[in-house]
Write a structure and sequence with these properties.
- The chain is an all-alpha fold.
- 64% of the residues lie in helices and 0% in strands.
- It has eleven helices and no strands.
């Protein structure tokens, strides 16, 4: 990212030990200290250290132009408006430009602690398979929810527009009365759009995912009962319900951030 300042990462255990130090009886008070790591590094170098810790190959370093970085920050702001926590936002932009550095020497002299270097701290605690999974899934999470939510919304819009006659013809083939068929297509399309919007808005995402799961199974049963020939369709409209259900379960599994 452009315009990122240097940082001095601090090991969490050092922060905890410092808090415990000041909770002891007789500990000094009304003191301001910089909790800063012993080494000043570039933001991109810290990313490289974590990639190495996760046992990934070094990434190709591409310096994003300002317009591309601004687009990413705005996308993060949009995600926050929808209730999602994201490390990329206008606030993150300001913080990365400001950097996070300080003088750790007063902290060390007062508490007797020796702040641990990021690289050494990571080497002492190798990444577990859970952390490697989390790192990959965390990067995929916005794509999973974004694509899945838009999938339902676009499906509903298509049903009300260019796909109207296709939906009606399938229901006619299943011998559903005309009025009932039109009401079914409209209700299904509106339900799809509502589910998609709920998935994208975090406060309702849990309910949206459950509704998506239930309605997918409902479509599966109704489609099988009314137009069983769809199972033999080479494009697999019925078979594709299963990967949709699996993506639904993945989204439900990773929805929580904490």
């Amino acid at each position: 990212m452009p315009d990122t300042a240097a940082i001095q990462p601090v090991y969490l255990d050092d922060v905890v030990e410092t808090v415990l130090f000041f909770l002891h009886p007789g500990a000094p008070s009304r003191i301001a200290l910089d909790l800063a790591g012993p080494r000043r590094i570039a933001f991109s170098d810290s990313v490289a250290l974590f990639r190495a810790w996760l046992r990934w190959k070094p990434a190709y370093r591409l310096h994003l132009p300002s317009w591309a970085a601004s687009g990413a920050y705005r996308a993060g702001d949009l995600a926050q408006m929808l209730g999602w926590g994201t490390p990329i936002s206008s606030t993150a932009k300001a913080e990365m430009r400001r950097g996070a550095t300080g003088d750790p020497e007063p902290w060390r002299q007062l508490t007797g602690l020796r702040p641990r270097d990021l690289e050494g701290a990571l080497a002492r605690e190798p990444a577990s398979v859970q952390e490697r999974w989390f790192a990959r899934l965390y990067a995929l999470k916005p794509l999973i929810f974004g694509v899945f939510g838009l999938f339902w919304i676009v499906t509903g819009i298509i049903s009300l527009g260019p796909g109207w006659e296709i939906g009606m013809s399938l229901l006619r083939e299943g011998r559903v009365p005309e009025k009932v068929a039109s009401l079914t297509v409209i209700a299904g399309a509106l339900a799809d759009i509502g589910i998609g919007l709920a998935i994208l808005w975090r406060p309702l995402s849990r309910y949206g995912l459950w509704a998506a799961l239930i309605i997918s199974l409902t479509y599966f049963v109704i489609g099988t009962a009314l137009v069983p020939r769809l199972w033999a369709n080479p494009l697999g409209p019925m078979l594709k319900i299963w990967p949709v259900l699996m993506l639904n379960l993945v989204a439900m599994a990773i929805r929580e951030d904490r």
